[in-house]
C-alpha cells in the first residue's frame, strides 16, 4: 500500500488558514469564527510531529500576529501553549476516534480562549465579549471536516476518484 505524501500541503494549508482568519465576516457571525490556524496546526502536530513542532508553531503565530494586526507575540504564545499540550498528549489523541478528537480539540480551543482572556486582562485591555467563548464550539464541530480534508490532501486521495 503506497501513499504519496505531498509536501506542499503543509504550507498551503497554513496560508489558507491565515486567509480564512482574515476573511471578513458579518458582525453577527464574527464570534463564531473558528481559530482556523489552531485547527490546521493541531492537525499537523498530531500527524506530522517531526515536521511541525513548537518552533514552527511559534513562527506561524508571529506571522499571524503580523497579518491580523494583533499584539506581537499574542497568537504565538497562544499557539505554543496549545502545541505544548498537543505534544504532551499526542500519543493518546492520535488514536482517539474522530468524535473524541473533536472533543479534545474543543477543550484545547477553549483553553486558548482562556489564555487570550488572561493576556487581555494582564495588559489591561478591554474585556472580551461573552460571545467570544462560542468560537471553540465552532472549531470543535469543524474538526472532523478539517481533519478529513487535510488527511485526504496529505495523501493525495482526491486524485483517485
UniProtKB/TrEMBL annotation:
Highest taxon listed in the record's lineage: Bacteria
Pfam families: MreD
InterPro entries membership: Cell_shape_determining_MreD, MreD_proteobac
Protein topology in the membrane: Multi-pass membrane protein
Primary localisation category: membrane
Transmembrane segments: 55-81, 102-124, 130-150
Protein location: Cell inner membrane; Cell membrane
Assigned protein family: Belongs to the MreD family.
Protein role: Involved in formation of the rod shape of the cell. May also contribute to regulation of formation of penicillin-binding proteins.
Protein name: Rod shape-determining protein MreD
Classification lineage: Bacteria, Pseudomonadati, Pseudomonadota, Gammaproteobacteria, Lysobacterales
Amino acid at each position: 500500500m503506497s501513499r504519496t505524501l505531498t509536501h506542499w500541503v503543509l504550507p498551503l494549508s497554513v496560508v489558507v488558514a491565515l486567509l480564512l482568519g482574515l476573511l471578513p465576516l458579518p458582525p453577527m457571525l464574527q464570534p463564531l469564527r473558528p481559530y482556523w490556524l489552531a485547527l490546521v496546526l493541531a492537525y499537523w502536530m498530531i500527524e506530522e510531529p517531526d515536521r511541525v513542532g513548537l518552533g514552527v508553531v511559534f513562527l506561524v503565530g508571529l506571522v499571524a500576529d503580523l497579518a491580523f494586526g494583533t499584539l506581537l507575540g499574542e497568537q504565538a504564545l497562544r499557539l505554543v501553549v496549545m502545541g505544548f499540550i498537543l505534544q504532551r498528549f499526542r500519543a493518546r489523541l492520535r488514536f482517539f476516534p474522530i468524535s473524541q478528537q473533536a472533543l479534545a480539540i474543543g477543550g484545547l480551543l477553549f483553553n486558548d480562549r482562556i489564555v487570550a482572556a488572561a493576556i487581555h486582562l494582564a495588559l489591561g485591555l478591554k474585556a472580551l465579549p461573552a460571545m467570544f467563548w462560542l468560537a471553540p464550539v465552532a472549531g470543535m464541530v469543524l474538526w472532523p471536516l478539517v481533519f478529513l480534508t487535510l488527511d485526504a490532501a496529505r495523501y493525495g486521495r482526491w486524485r483517485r476518484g
